[in-house]
Amino acid sequence: MGECVVKRARRRTLAISVLPDGTVEVVAPLGAAEDKIHEKVEKRTRWILRQRRVFAALNVKRPPRRYCTGATHRYLGRQYRLKVSIGEDQGVKLRGAYLLVVSRSEAEDSVAALVASWMRERAKEQFSKRFVAWRTWCEERGLSEPRLRLLSMPKRWGSAHKNGTVALNPQLVRAPSICIDYVIAHEICHRLHAGHGRGFYAELNCLCPNWRQCKQRLEAMD
Ligand SMILES: [Zn+2]
Questions:
Q1: pLDDT, tens digit, 9 for 90 and up, residues 22-75
Q2: How close is the Cα of 70 to the center of ligand 1, in Å?
Q3: Model-wide pTM > 0.90
Q4: Which H/E stretch holds residue 168?
Q5: How far is the CA of 77 from the centre of ligand 1 (A)?
């Protein structure tokens, strides 16, 4: 079943986790017998394999995005084709199935910068719109007004801070809107529950019953 590391700690129950490199880490109570530990790990085999698949998919090096005519880019889950033309009046426009880019240069990094700033603007607009409903939700629970911040994070879609700020990755605007709602719901849930315990998931299940599908779609997104 691959690499498995067993650590001992002063605790009553066994904790099994899969690390991003696929290693299984088991933290066992000081007195737990080896065979019992292995028995418990065996029972979690299916879960372990599933976790490994998720990490393997994340670790696959994706080809870099292209910024030339014909390249595809996602916005709110839909695919658009890039059409680059040369002009002085630089900018990006969405027209039908196309993202029309006017750039002074055909160089991919110039086009990439224009697309990135357009995506950031759309992210601000889309996220703010979806954020409005949460103001009332927080107010009803005596929580301070949630504040939105755009933050590029290499490995995360969002994060929540104690002061009420929810940071969202502008790249999230590439995802379908239900996935954006899931990430916001997840981060807003942290206003009530710090970790990912039972209470956290109970709340998340209420706020976003289909969160598992959303999470999978985000993980599979190109
Ligand atoms: Zn979280």
A1: 888 899 999 899 899 989 999 999 999 888 888 887 776 677 899 999 999 999
A2: 37
A3: no
A4: strand 165-168
A5: 22
